[in-house]
Fold each of these.
Amino acid sequence: MAKADQVEIRMRIVIENPVAGVRHSLQTGDTGVLDPKESQAGEPLAFDFPVHIAPGPKFFGDQVRREGPERRFVYIRVGQAAGDHGSPWTRRMKIDIHDTPQDLLDRAMAGEGVIELTVNGTGKDGSPACATVRPLSRRLV
């Protein structure tokens, strides 16, 4: 798809209730670590990144991963996967973006703000969340 058919928007993933002292990072490309952060006392972590949207909608960008013809998602790397080799965890959170409501996409493409997805950073067992993590909320900020 030609770049001329794409509009860049900003997205933000906010990890609420992350496990304190565990490094998290946005994944860039297939394996790269981008913007590593740790919560000292469970305060939220935020990761901002650009996404290119084409009609369909179709999603493109360095942080956008694909699975099948439609599913698009972003990985948040956790523990060793985020570059903390002393961590007992090596995980990734998979956060879907392909199902972002069209009205939010339209408003973001019109320059009205950043699409913010909020997820819970702690699993039911008290360890860092991993695998597919469903957004608790999606909004324009």
Note: The helical segments are 102-109.
Amino acid sequence: MPKLYLSELKPGMRLLKPVTNPSGMTLLPEGTELNEELIDRLQRLEVESVHVRGNRRPDRPLEELLAELDARFRKTETEPHTALLKRIFQEHITDLYTDHGL
């Protein structure tokens, strides 16, 4: 999902991944809904960017994207590493639609 600079954040957006400081301490957990106060706090802590849940709808239907993925992997899907990659892409594409409630 998108990684946005703090200047692009808007209240109501939700974090896809936790925000951590350089030593690995969690500043805000995954799923936190951002508000003006939290965005200001992140700026004061000099956080450059954060991962937020997607706010764009995918451009094409899920079935179309999965069919295209099948076509691209058809010749090599019996190879173990390629099958793993295909599964990872399938999960990612499906997650895009799940995040949007499609």
Note: Residues 80-99 form the longest helix (20 residues).
Amino acid sequence: MANDGFFEKVYGTAKLIPYGRVTSYGAIAKYLGATGSARMVGWAMNASQKKDVPAHRVVNRNGLLTGKHHFQGTNLMQQLLENEGVVVIDNKIQDFEKHFWDPMKEL
């Protein structure tokens, strides 16, 4: 698959997201030099189930849990985030700016 290299870079970046923090699909794309490829980052997250990737820590640019339907169970993504101290109400991360991890600034 042509995207394998890109997906592996996405997974490597996602594995660096600290416990209790989140980032966005677009922030990962930008960090990898692929600005405008947020959707491809989303595809990578969707395909990451068996790769030990903390995909629950990747959300959309507004803090919405847009990838939640790719997790087993109806609220698994939210539960994983809440276990890390992130408050989620109506599928949206509260205090998003406080929890946001920007790989461009932090790596």
Note: The two ends are 28 Å apart (CA to CA).
Amino acid sequence: MAKVHSLTLTKNGEQVSFSKEPAAVIALLRNGQYTVTITRAREPRSLDQNALMWLWFTCISQETGTPVQDVHDYYCHAFLTKDIEWNGRTERVSTGTRKLSKESMTAFLNSVQADAAAEFGITLPLPEDRNFEVFYQMYR
């Protein structure tokens, strides 16, 4: 497999900067024809989002008597599934949160928050909510 050379481009208004000098990266390439594709980088979920998710799952676990890992697995199955082709058939698989972007993780957390309220009557606060500190102390 050919080695992949990459550099990061950042645009802020009219300013453009590179993580490496483009000419230096090009100099590393062997002779031949290349295709350059520019894709927008996605920001991975934050540690704060992950910590909030596990705090919420701990609350749901304690309030329902369900093991916390089962709460996690249930919500991943409920909201993070996709269909894949496997050995000639379509299978539905659950994905975890590890590779979610910040936006996708926010959508996942919103779904968990809504489901916990509808299914169990549990209010899961956000860090900016007035009573979050009390919630945090109770379920951390």
Note: The mean pLDDT is 90.
